[in-house]
Amino acid sequence: MESNVLLNLVLYLPLLGALAIGFLPREQHVWIRNTALAVGLAAFALSLGPLFGFKPNPNVPYDYVTEFDWIKQFGIKYKTGVDGISLVLLVLTTLLSWIAILSSFGAIRERVKEYYICLLLLETGMLGVFLALDLVLFYVFWEAMLIPMYFLIGIWGGPRRAYATIKFVLYTLAGSLLMLVAIVWVYVASAKMGPGTFDLTVLTGPGSPLANSSALGPDERFWLFLAFAAAFAIKVPMFPFHTWLPDAHVEAPTAGSVILAGILLKMGTYGFLRYCMPLFPDVAVQLAPWFLILSVIGIIYGALMAYVQTDIKRLVAYSSVSHLGFCTLGLFAFTREAVAGSVLQMVNHGLSTGALFLMVGMIYERRHTREITEFGGLWKVIPVFAAFFLITTLSSIGLPGLNGFVGEFMILLGTWGPPGTSAVMRWSAILAATGVVLGAVYMLWLFQRMMQGPLDNRENLRLPDLNMREILTLAPLVLLMFWIGVRPTLVTDLFGPAVSKNVVQGVETAKASLMGPETPSTGIPVPFPGSPPPRRPGEPRPGRPGRPQIRLTPPGGGTPAVPPGTGAPR
């Protein structure tokens, strides 16, 4: 079977599974659960075929492309394909989806049929986001995944699920509407230079209609970038758009939290990589310092907020704010090491934080509380659980030999940059490194309070350890933590060419046109459209209006005289 056909089968197999479950009797819970798990495992197995056979074609930006006209009169196509970045995230999605399904077997006992239908529909929406190469198709999948997530939190969530659901939907819709306006604007702009198109490969490739100043002026490019960036910053979420995340995590069922942290948040960082930077690389370069600053604030703020939490799930939720700050930091550093580290950290966060949320759900099913003070000395009672928790904790804080270390190291190394890197990047790397220390503080303190110390709560004396089903949900994630930590190149080699070709190359070209190719620093703080263009290195300062530039010329001509203390003439 051709790989492009296989990818589309992976995309729609969960949708077909949801339809199949719809025909099963409502009371047949075992059949419903097993059908959902079989579909999830099948989608994961099929996604491994393109992964193992993936060899990037240096002549084209995307592989395994499927393309045909969808709404021809408006230039809308059904176009799907992958590069190394989207393929890795695609496999992560299929992996966490079947794990989320399996983890729900003991937790969900009401409206079982509807629950698994929502999970499978959500998987199709998420896969479509990573496969779409048409702006309208991308937007359709982007919005489609919001509906099942709304029901997962709103129906099977905690006591404050209504508040969390409304907040989640309002934040996401606000960003999505801005992005929709930007997508339509991009189409209109492309129509000025020929047939209007939503095709991403046309809009970002050589001879892109958006590169012509008569199609899009500097001010338009600035605001279009911000419209796309707002949608993606909310989804990440970046500071200060993060306030919806802790409530959504705390109220969501366990599988919802795993999917939310492991995959949905990555769609924000993926959006920056796939759309903001390739479509508007010049604006990305100009605004990079501001995104670096917001990323550093998110890293430190998220870590400090995690440290003071008393609820385990809320602590892990705030840790996501901190960890995703590293991802956006690497993206806007614009070096190959930092961007590749950011993509790797997306995968790492999905593994470690997904496992943490799974274990929070497991301990909640046993004690029906998430208060840290209710635990202590659990290693004596549930040693298998404690061992998994320790490995995941060490992965989350970036212990060498586990996956978290490699991603954070590449991001910090790439942000520090070569000699001559801007002070903004250097200070961003220094301050972000404090987030690594703070992450170790709050995660190790959490482990100490829960697993070590005296077993002084009688409710914990008879807690059952992990059963075989729970071990099977955690084991693949832990194995991947070790595998990536020991052999990270097996993953980075998949998306390294895509990082260079589809992300960094365009940004470096834009940077060279704005700053001069010899300047190694990243980003120029041009905060508002209409600002004067930046001065290139070696370019003379323009004279002030109304003040003529004075050149002292000796009688008879010759070389202009230089007033004492002013240096060589310009």
Q: What's the gist of this structure?
A:
This protein has 570 residues and is an all-alpha fold. It is 66% helix and 3% strand.
Q: Order the strands across the largest sheet as they lie in space.
A: 1-2
Give a short account of the largest sheet.
2 strands, antiparallel
Average pLDDT level: 87
- What structural class do you assign from the helix and strand content? mainly alpha
Stretches with pLDDT under 50, minimum 5 residues: 517-532, 543-557, 559-570
Q: Work out the number of β strands.
A: 2
**Terminal Cα separation, in Å?**
67 Å
Order of helices and strands: HHEEHHHHHHHHHHHHHHHHHH
Percent of residues in helices comes to 55-70%
Q: Rounded to an integer, what's the Rg over CA atoms?
A: 26 Å
Number of helices: 20
SS strand fraction: under 5%
Overall morphology: globular
Explain this structure to me?
This protein is mainly alpha-helical. Helices cover 66% and strands 3% of the residues. The protein is built from 20 helices and two strands. The chain has helices at 3-22, 29-52, 84-103, 112-131, 135-144, 146-156, 161-191, 200-204, 218-235, 244-251, 254-264, 266-279, 281-307, 312-331, 336-367, 383-396, 403-416, 423-451, 468-486, 489-515; strands spanning 63-71, 76-82. It has a two-stranded antiparallel ribbon with strand order 1-2.
Topology:
Layout lengths: L2 H20 L6 H24 L10 E9 L4 E7 L1 H20 L8 H20 L3 H10 L1 H11 L4 H31 L8 H5 L13 H18 L8 H8 L2 H11 L1 H14 L1 H27 L4 H20 L4 H32 L15 H14 L6 H14 L6 H29 L16 H19 L2 H27 L55
Helix pairs in contact: 1-2, 1-4, 2-3, 2-4, 3-4, 3-11, 3-15, 3-19, 3-20, 4-5, 4-6, 5-7, 6-7, 7-9, 7-10, 9-12, 10-14, 11-15, 12-13, 12-14, 12-20, 13-14, 13-18, 13-20, 14-15, 14-17, 14-18, 15-16, 15-17, 15-19, 15-20, 16-18, 17-18, 17-19
